[in-house]
Design a protein that fits this description.
The chain is of the alpha/beta class. It is 71% helix and 9% strand. The termini are far apart. 35% of the residues are buried.
Protein backbone atom coordinates (compact mmCIF):
# COMPACT_ATOMS: atom_id res chain seq x y z
CA UNK A 1 0.00 0.00 0.00
CA UNK A 2 1.47 3.43 -0.89
CA UNK A 3 2.63 5.55 2.01
CA UNK A 4 0.31 8.43 1.08
CA UNK A 5 -2.75 6.15 1.17
CA UNK A 6 -1.58 4.64 4.45
CA UNK A 7 -1.40 8.07 6.07
CA UNK A 8 -4.93 9.01 4.97
CA UNK A 9 -6.54 5.83 6.29
CA UNK A 10 -7.70 4.96 9.80
CA UNK A 11 -5.57 2.20 11.34
CA UNK A 12 -5.67 0.06 14.46
CA UNK A 13 -2.63 -2.05 15.31
CA UNK A 14 -2.32 -4.52 18.18
CA UNK A 15 0.65 -5.44 20.33
CA UNK A 16 0.71 -7.99 23.14
CA UNK A 17 2.68 -7.32 26.31
CA UNK A 18 2.30 -10.33 28.54
CA UNK A 19 -1.43 -10.62 29.29
CA UNK A 20 -2.18 -7.07 28.06
CA UNK A 21 -3.43 -6.41 24.54
CA UNK A 22 -2.49 -2.87 23.53
CA UNK A 23 -4.45 -1.35 20.66
CA UNK A 24 -2.89 1.70 19.03
CA UNK A 25 -5.21 3.88 16.97
CA UNK A 26 -3.73 6.04 14.23
CA UNK A 27 -4.68 8.19 11.26
CA UNK A 28 -7.87 10.09 10.49
CA UNK A 29 -11.08 8.40 11.71
CA UNK A 30 -13.97 9.64 9.62
CA UNK A 31 -17.43 8.29 8.88
CA UNK A 32 -16.96 8.73 5.14
CA UNK A 33 -13.77 6.64 5.17
CA UNK A 34 -12.90 3.01 5.84
CA UNK A 35 -12.40 2.32 9.55
CA UNK A 36 -11.42 -0.89 11.37
CA UNK A 37 -13.92 -2.88 13.42
CA UNK A 38 -13.29 -4.29 16.86
CA UNK A 39 -14.52 -7.84 16.26
CA UNK A 40 -12.04 -8.91 13.53
CA UNK A 41 -9.27 -7.02 15.31
CA UNK A 42 -9.39 -8.89 18.61
CA UNK A 43 -9.99 -12.31 17.04
CA UNK A 44 -10.61 -15.33 19.23
CA UNK A 45 -7.93 -14.57 21.83
CA UNK A 46 -9.12 -13.30 25.18
CA UNK A 47 -6.48 -11.26 27.01
CA UNK A 48 -6.73 -10.34 30.66
CA UNK A 49 -6.59 -6.63 29.90
CA UNK A 50 -7.09 -4.33 26.92
CA UNK A 51 -5.35 -0.96 26.70
CA UNK A 52 -6.46 1.62 24.13
CA UNK A 53 -4.15 4.37 22.88
CA UNK A 54 -4.94 7.16 20.40
CA UNK A 55 -1.62 9.03 20.22
CA UNK A 56 -1.45 8.75 16.43
CA UNK A 57 -5.01 9.90 15.67
CA UNK A 58 -4.95 13.07 13.59
CA UNK A 59 -8.71 13.71 13.52
CA UNK A 60 -11.76 11.76 14.63
CA UNK A 61 -15.53 11.76 14.69
CA UNK A 62 -18.32 9.36 15.65
CA UNK A 63 -16.61 6.42 13.93
CA UNK A 64 -13.85 6.40 16.55
CA UNK A 65 -16.41 6.79 19.35
CA UNK A 66 -18.24 3.72 18.02
CA UNK A 67 -14.97 1.74 17.91
CA UNK A 68 -14.07 2.65 21.51
CA UNK A 69 -17.63 1.87 22.64
CA UNK A 70 -17.57 -1.53 20.94
CA UNK A 71 -14.25 -2.30 22.60
CA UNK A 72 -15.57 -1.37 26.06
CA UNK A 73 -18.77 -3.32 25.47
CA UNK A 74 -16.81 -6.41 24.37
CA UNK A 75 -14.56 -6.17 27.44
CA UNK A 76 -17.58 -5.88 29.74
CA UNK A 77 -19.26 -8.90 28.11
CA UNK A 78 -16.06 -10.99 28.17
CA UNK A 79 -15.04 -10.00 31.71
CA UNK A 80 -11.81 -8.36 30.51
CA UNK A 81 -10.40 -5.20 32.06
CA UNK A 82 -10.39 -2.21 29.69
CA UNK A 83 -7.87 0.59 30.25
CA UNK A 84 -9.00 3.78 28.49
CA UNK A 85 -6.88 6.17 30.58
CA UNK A 86 -4.48 6.93 27.69
CA UNK A 87 -7.38 8.22 25.58
CA UNK A 88 -8.41 11.89 25.58
CA UNK A 89 -11.07 12.69 28.17
CA UNK A 90 -13.78 13.61 25.65
CA UNK A 91 -13.15 10.47 23.58
CA UNK A 92 -13.26 8.32 26.72
CA UNK A 93 -16.52 9.91 27.89
CA UNK A 94 -18.32 9.53 24.55
CA UNK A 95 -17.06 5.97 24.14
CA UNK A 96 -18.39 5.06 27.58
CA UNK A 97 -21.80 6.49 26.72
CA UNK A 98 -21.86 4.49 23.48
CA UNK A 99 -20.96 1.30 25.36
CA UNK A 100 -23.73 2.02 27.88
CA UNK A 101 -26.27 2.35 25.06
CA UNK A 102 -25.12 -0.99 23.67
CA UNK A 103 -25.60 -2.65 27.05
CA UNK A 104 -29.04 -1.09 27.44
CA UNK A 105 -30.27 -2.33 24.06
CA UNK A 106 -32.50 -5.38 24.29
CA UNK A 107 -31.66 -8.56 22.48
CA UNK A 108 -34.28 -10.98 21.23
CA UNK A 109 -33.63 -14.56 22.22
CA UNK A 110 -34.62 -16.60 19.15
CA UNK A 111 -33.65 -19.88 20.85
CA UNK A 112 -36.71 -19.72 23.11
CA UNK A 113 -39.44 -22.18 22.22
CA UNK A 114 -43.05 -21.17 21.67
CA UNK A 115 -44.24 -22.95 24.82
CA UNK A 116 -41.54 -21.30 26.90
CA UNK A 117 -42.40 -17.88 25.48
CA UNK A 118 -46.09 -18.35 26.26
CA UNK A 119 -45.25 -19.42 29.79
CA UNK A 120 -43.00 -16.44 30.43
CA UNK A 121 -45.56 -14.03 28.99
CA UNK A 122 -48.30 -15.59 31.13
CA UNK A 123 -46.18 -15.28 34.23
CA UNK A 124 -45.44 -11.62 33.49
CA UNK A 125 -49.14 -10.93 32.87
CA UNK A 126 -50.07 -12.59 36.17
CA UNK A 127 -47.41 -10.57 37.98
CA UNK A 128 -48.68 -7.32 36.48
CA UNK A 129 -52.26 -8.28 37.34
CA UNK A 130 -51.27 -9.02 40.93
CA UNK A 131 -49.46 -5.67 41.20
CA UNK A 132 -52.50 -3.85 39.79
CA UNK A 133 -54.86 -5.57 42.24
CA UNK A 134 -52.51 -4.63 45.07
CA UNK A 135 -52.56 -1.02 43.88
CA UNK A 136 -56.38 -1.01 43.72
CA UNK A 137 -56.49 -2.56 47.18
CA UNK A 138 -54.26 0.18 48.58
CA UNK A 139 -56.55 2.77 47.00
CA UNK A 140 -59.59 1.08 48.55
CA UNK A 141 -57.96 1.00 51.99
CA UNK A 142 -57.03 4.66 51.60
CA UNK A 143 -60.64 5.48 50.68
CA UNK A 144 -61.93 3.68 53.78
CA UNK A 145 -59.49 5.61 55.93
CA UNK A 146 -60.57 8.82 54.21
CA UNK A 147 -64.17 8.15 55.17
CA UNK A 148 -63.03 7.49 58.73
CA UNK A 149 -60.92 10.67 58.74
CA UNK A 150 -57.59 8.84 59.08
CA UNK A 151 -56.17 8.98 55.55
CA UNK A 152 -53.81 11.94 55.86
CA UNK A 153 -55.70 13.41 52.93
CA UNK A 154 -55.28 17.04 51.89
CA UNK A 155 -58.46 18.43 50.38
CA UNK A 156 -56.55 21.46 49.10
CA UNK A 157 -54.64 19.17 46.72
CA UNK A 158 -57.92 17.58 45.64
CA UNK A 159 -59.49 20.98 44.91
CA UNK A 160 -56.47 21.94 42.82
CA UNK A 161 -56.73 18.75 40.81
CA UNK A 162 -60.48 19.28 40.37
CA UNK A 163 -59.76 22.66 38.81
CA UNK A 164 -57.12 21.17 36.48
CA UNK A 165 -59.19 18.22 35.27
CA UNK A 166 -62.55 20.01 35.43
CA UNK A 167 -62.71 23.71 34.65
CA UNK A 168 -59.47 23.76 32.62
CA UNK A 169 -60.71 20.86 30.47
CA UNK A 170 -63.91 22.65 29.40
CA UNK A 171 -62.54 24.16 26.15
CA UNK A 172 -61.35 20.88 24.63
CA UNK A 173 -64.41 18.97 25.86
CA UNK A 174 -66.65 21.65 24.39
CA UNK A 175 -65.01 21.47 20.97
CA UNK A 176 -64.92 17.68 20.78
CA UNK A 177 -68.50 17.19 22.01
CA UNK A 178 -69.95 19.84 19.69
CA UNK A 179 -68.19 18.34 16.68
CA UNK A 180 -69.28 14.81 17.65
CA UNK A 181 -72.89 16.02 17.77
CA UNK A 182 -72.53 17.57 14.31
CA UNK A 183 -70.96 14.40 12.90
CA UNK A 184 -73.66 12.13 14.33
CA UNK A 185 -76.41 14.41 13.03
CA UNK A 186 -75.05 14.45 9.48
CA UNK A 187 -74.47 10.68 9.53
CA UNK A 188 -77.97 9.98 10.85
CA UNK A 189 -79.60 12.35 8.40
CA UNK A 190 -78.23 10.33 5.46
CA UNK A 191 -80.33 7.32 6.47
CA UNK A 192 -83.34 9.03 8.04
CA UNK A 193 -83.90 11.32 5.06
CA UNK A 194 -84.62 8.28 2.88
CA UNK A 195 -87.63 7.43 5.04
CA UNK A 196 -88.84 10.97 5.57
CA UNK A 197 -87.85 10.87 9.23
CA UNK A 198 -85.64 13.95 9.44
CA UNK A 199 -87.13 14.88 12.83
CA UNK A 200 -85.83 11.61 14.30
CA UNK A 201 -82.35 13.08 14.18
CA UNK A 202 -83.23 14.62 17.54
CA UNK A 203 -83.97 11.16 18.95
CA UNK A 204 -80.71 9.78 17.57
CA UNK A 205 -78.55 12.57 18.96
CA UNK A 206 -80.32 12.62 22.34
CA UNK A 207 -79.97 8.90 23.01
CA UNK A 208 -76.46 8.60 21.59
CA UNK A 209 -75.06 11.54 23.53
CA UNK A 210 -76.70 10.84 26.89
CA UNK A 211 -76.07 7.09 26.96
CA UNK A 212 -72.78 6.70 25.12
CA UNK A 213 -70.92 9.49 23.40
CA UNK A 214 -71.00 12.19 26.07
CA UNK A 215 -69.32 10.11 28.76
CA UNK A 216 -67.15 8.28 26.21
CA UNK A 217 -65.71 11.41 24.57
CA UNK A 218 -65.14 13.11 27.92
CA UNK A 219 -63.30 10.00 29.13
CA UNK A 220 -61.12 9.75 26.02
CA UNK A 221 -60.28 13.45 26.13
CA UNK A 222 -59.32 13.29 29.80
CA UNK A 223 -57.32 10.10 29.19
CA UNK A 224 -55.14 11.98 26.72
CA UNK A 225 -55.07 15.20 28.70
CA UNK A 226 -55.27 14.43 32.41
CA UNK A 227 -54.23 10.78 32.57
CA UNK A 228 -50.96 11.52 30.76
CA UNK A 229 -50.40 14.54 33.03
CA UNK A 230 -50.86 12.38 36.15
CA UNK A 231 -48.38 9.81 34.84
CA UNK A 232 -45.84 12.49 33.92
CA UNK A 233 -46.14 14.28 37.26
CA UNK A 234 -45.78 11.17 39.41
CA UNK A 235 -43.11 9.76 37.08
CA UNK A 236 -41.08 12.95 37.48
CA UNK A 237 -41.45 12.70 41.25
CA UNK A 238 -40.15 9.16 41.10
CA UNK A 239 -37.21 10.20 38.92
CA UNK A 240 -36.37 12.96 41.44
CA UNK A 241 -36.64 10.42 44.31
CA UNK A 242 -39.55 12.32 45.86
CA UNK A 243 -41.58 9.09 46.07
CA UNK A 244 -38.74 7.45 48.00
CA UNK A 245 -38.60 10.44 50.33
CA UNK A 246 -42.33 10.13 51.10
CA UNK A 247 -41.92 6.40 51.81
CA UNK A 248 -38.97 7.04 54.15
CA UNK A 249 -41.03 9.63 56.03
CA UNK A 250 -43.78 7.04 56.52
CA UNK A 251 -46.23 8.74 54.13
CA UNK A 252 -48.08 6.46 51.74
CA UNK A 253 -47.66 7.68 48.14
CA UNK A 254 -51.05 6.18 47.29
CA UNK A 255 -52.90 8.16 49.95
CA UNK A 256 -50.86 11.33 49.47
CA UNK A 257 -50.59 11.46 45.66
CA UNK A 258 -53.04 9.02 44.09
CA UNK A 259 -56.24 9.52 46.12
CA UNK A 260 -56.57 13.30 45.54
CA UNK A 261 -56.23 12.80 41.79
CA UNK A 262 -58.55 9.81 41.53
CA UNK A 263 -61.25 11.43 43.68
CA UNK A 264 -60.97 14.68 41.71
CA UNK A 265 -61.56 12.83 38.44
CA UNK A 266 -64.36 10.76 39.93
CA UNK A 267 -66.17 13.93 41.04
CA UNK A 268 -65.59 16.02 37.92
CA UNK A 269 -66.25 13.42 35.22
CA UNK A 270 -70.08 13.33 35.73
CA UNK A 271 -70.22 17.11 35.41
CA UNK A 272 -68.07 17.03 32.29
CA UNK A 273 -70.22 14.25 30.83
CA UNK A 274 -73.42 16.26 31.37
CA UNK A 275 -71.73 19.27 29.82
CA UNK A 276 -70.63 17.13 26.87
CA UNK A 277 -74.22 15.88 26.47
CA UNK A 278 -75.48 19.44 26.24
CA UNK A 279 -72.85 20.47 23.67
CA UNK A 280 -73.46 17.35 21.59
CA UNK A 281 -77.21 17.96 21.53
CA UNK A 282 -76.53 21.59 20.63
CA UNK A 283 -74.36 20.43 17.71
CA UNK A 284 -77.13 18.18 16.47
CA UNK A 285 -79.62 21.03 16.82
CA UNK A 286 -77.35 23.24 14.69
CA UNK A 287 -77.28 20.68 11.89
CA UNK A 288 -81.04 20.09 12.17
CA UNK A 289 -81.75 23.82 11.82
CA UNK A 290 -79.25 24.60 9.05
CA UNK A 291 -79.38 21.44 6.92
CA UNK A 292 -82.77 19.86 7.68
CA UNK A 293 -84.89 23.00 8.30
CA UNK A 294 -86.05 21.72 11.70
CA UNK A 295 -86.76 24.52 14.21
CA UNK A 296 -84.87 24.32 17.51
CA UNK A 297 -88.14 24.11 19.47
CA UNK A 298 -89.36 21.13 17.44
CA UNK A 299 -85.95 19.49 17.79
CA UNK A 300 -86.01 19.97 21.57
CA UNK A 301 -89.56 18.70 22.03
CA UNK A 302 -88.88 15.61 19.91
CA UNK A 303 -85.71 14.85 21.85
CA UNK A 304 -87.57 15.01 25.19
CA UNK A 305 -90.03 12.36 23.95
CA UNK A 306 -87.26 9.74 23.80
CA UNK A 307 -84.66 10.88 26.36
CA UNK A 308 -85.64 10.33 29.98
CA UNK A 309 -83.93 10.10 33.37
CA UNK A 310 -82.64 6.48 32.99
CA UNK A 311 -80.76 7.48 29.83
CA UNK A 312 -79.06 10.34 31.63
CA UNK A 313 -78.35 8.11 34.64
CA UNK A 314 -76.65 5.54 32.43
CA UNK A 315 -74.28 8.19 31.09
CA UNK A 316 -73.53 9.52 34.58
CA UNK A 317 -72.75 6.03 35.92
CA UNK A 318 -70.43 5.37 32.98
CA UNK A 319 -68.70 8.71 33.42
CA UNK A 320 -67.90 7.97 37.08
CA UNK A 321 -66.36 4.65 36.09
CA UNK A 322 -64.40 6.26 33.26
CA UNK A 323 -63.05 8.93 35.60
CA UNK A 324 -61.83 6.33 38.08
CA UNK A 325 -60.24 4.34 35.24
CA UNK A 326 -58.37 7.37 33.90
CA UNK A 327 -57.16 8.39 37.36
CA UNK A 328 -56.04 4.91 38.38
CA UNK A 329 -54.32 4.26 35.04
CA UNK A 330 -52.41 7.54 35.05
CA UNK A 331 -51.26 7.25 38.66
CA UNK A 332 -50.36 3.56 38.32
CA UNK A 333 -48.22 4.13 35.25
CA UNK A 334 -46.55 7.07 36.97
CA UNK A 335 -45.60 4.92 39.95
CA UNK A 336 -44.27 2.24 37.58
CA UNK A 337 -42.14 4.69 35.58
CA UNK A 338 -38.40 4.24 35.36
CA UNK A 339 -36.27 6.85 37.09
CA UNK A 340 -35.20 8.71 33.96
CA UNK A 341 -36.59 11.08 31.35
CA UNK A 342 -37.37 8.30 28.89
CA UNK A 343 -39.30 6.43 31.58
CA UNK A 344 -41.50 9.47 32.22
CA UNK A 345 -42.41 9.71 28.53
CA UNK A 346 -43.13 6.01 28.30
CA UNK A 347 -45.32 6.21 31.41
CA UNK A 348 -47.39 9.03 29.92
CA UNK A 349 -47.89 7.13 26.67
CA UNK A 350 -48.73 3.90 28.48
CA UNK A 351 -51.22 5.72 30.72
CA UNK A 352 -53.19 7.00 27.71
CA UNK A 353 -53.25 3.61 26.00
CA UNK A 354 -54.23 1.78 29.19
CA UNK A 355 -57.00 4.24 30.05
CA UNK A 356 -58.58 4.15 26.58
CA UNK A 357 -58.37 0.36 26.47
CA UNK A 358 -60.12 -0.06 29.83
CA UNK A 359 -62.70 2.57 28.91
CA UNK A 360 -63.69 0.53 25.84
CA UNK A 361 -63.77 -2.68 27.88
CA UNK A 362 -65.87 -1.03 30.60
CA UNK A 363 -68.29 0.35 28.01
CA UNK A 364 -68.82 -3.14 26.59
CA UNK A 365 -69.43 -4.54 30.09
CA UNK A 366 -71.89 -1.74 30.86
CA UNK A 367 -73.74 -2.40 27.59
CA UNK A 368 -74.25 -6.05 28.49
CA UNK A 369 -75.15 -5.27 32.10
CA UNK A 370 -77.67 -2.51 31.33
CA UNK A 371 -79.28 -4.64 28.64
CA UNK A 372 -79.65 -7.49 31.15
CA UNK A 373 -81.36 -5.32 33.75
CA UNK A 374 -83.44 -3.45 31.15
CA UNK A 375 -81.98 -0.01 31.79
Amino acid sequence: MPASQELTRARASTRTEGSVLEVALEGPWRLDGETPRWGPLVGKDRPQEVRLRADGVTRWDTSLVAFVGEAQHWCAEAGVACDTAPLPEKMRLLGGQFAESLRASTRVDHTRSLLEGVGISTREAMSQGRDFLQFVGECWIGTKRLVAGQAGFRWLDCLGEMQKCGAMALPIVSLISFLVGITLAYSGAIVLRRFGGDIWVADLIGVAMTREMGAMMAGVVLAGRTGAAFAAEIGSMKANEEIDALTILGISPVRFLVLPRVIALGLMMPLLALYANFLGILGGMTVAYTALDIPPTAYWVEMLTIVDLPDVSVGVIKSIAYGLIVGLSGCRRGLQAESNAAGVGQAATSAVVTAILFIIVADAIFAVLFNAIGL
